[in-house]
Amino acid sequence: MLLKVDNVYSGYGAVRIVQDVSLDVGKGEIVAIIGRNGVGKTTLMETIVGDLPAVEGRIEFKGRDITRLRPSQRARLGMGYVPQGRGMFARLSVAANLRMGERIGGARAKPNYERVFQYFPRLLDRQSQKAGLLSGGEQQQLAIGRVLVGHPISFSWTSLPRASNPTSFKPSARPSAACATAKA
Question: Terminus of the chain with fewer CB atoms < 10 Å: N or C?
Answer without folding.
Answer: N
